[in-house]
Amino acid sequence: MSRFGLVALALLLPVSVQAADFKAPVVEILSAATANWQDMGTDTDTPPPYTDYFSEDFLKRLYSKDFVAKYREAAKYPAYEDGGSPFDYDPIIGGQDGCALKDVTTTEGQPAAGAEDVTVTFDNSHCFGERATDWQPEKLVFKLVEEDGRAVIDDIERPDGASLKKELLEIAQEGANGGNGSAAESPE
């Protein structure tokens, strides 16, 4: 290999290592939410299988180690007696009821020091009829970090300052203190 080839390779390697796709985990979660909340043609239609945002596969691939540890601790205190999620609502759409996701936009911030915010907005209440004049679409800010050479979700925040990691900590603390684990009311 020529010197020019070695120099070019040396210059390109650091770029490819730092080119983590911060948007990819967010797109995967939004694809799951879109599938989970799709419109059904009639009341007799069979809904598609539910995609768990916190399945073992997603926890291993899409979330940071810190987020996973907090989720596992909170999951010891499921919201309902039959087990399952520590949440008593859908933490992505922000409630227990919703419409098919519409007008989904995803905006990436500027990566800095191995971290980036990806902001997502969507309309999940269009099927409820008339809305307040100050209605705004649902907004989430995915806090992503680079871990083991890939982008992963470290937290999900709402404009009101709510943090999914903080909620997980509260659920785990309340559960450990004898509560049922549902530390926070759903945002709806």
Structure, explained:
The protein is α+β, with helices and mostly antiparallel strands and 188 residues long. The chain is 32% helix and 18% strand. The protein has helices at 3-18, 24-36, 56-62, 65-75, 164-176; strands at 102-108, 115-123, 138-147, 150-157. It has a four-stranded antiparallel beta sheet. The longest helix has 16 residues, at 3-18. It is globular. The protein starts with a helix and ends in a 12-residue tail after the last helix. Mean pLDDT is 85; it is low at 4-17 and 183-188.
Largest sheet: 4 strands, antiparallel
Q: Tell me the Rg in angstroms.
A: 19 Å
Mean pLDDT: 85
Cross-sheet strand order for the largest sheet: 1-2-3-4
Low-confidence stretches: 4-17, 183-188
Structural class: alpha+beta
**Percent in strands:** 15-25%
Given the structure, what is the number of helices?
5
**Strand segment count:** 4
Q: Considering DSSP H and I runs of 4 or more, what fraction of the residues is helical?
A: 25-40%
Secondary-structure element order, as H and E? HHHHEEEEH
Shape: globular
Please tag this protein with its features.
188 residues, four-stranded antiparallel sheet, 18% strand, disordered C terminus
Short description:
With 188 residues, the chain is an alpha+beta fold.
How are the SSEs ordered, and which strands pair?
Elements: H1 3-18, H2 24-36, H3 56-62, H4 65-75, E1 102-108, E2 115-123, E3 138-147, E4 150-157, H5 164-176
Antiparallel strand pairs: 1-2, 2-3, 3-4
Helix pairs in contact: 4-5
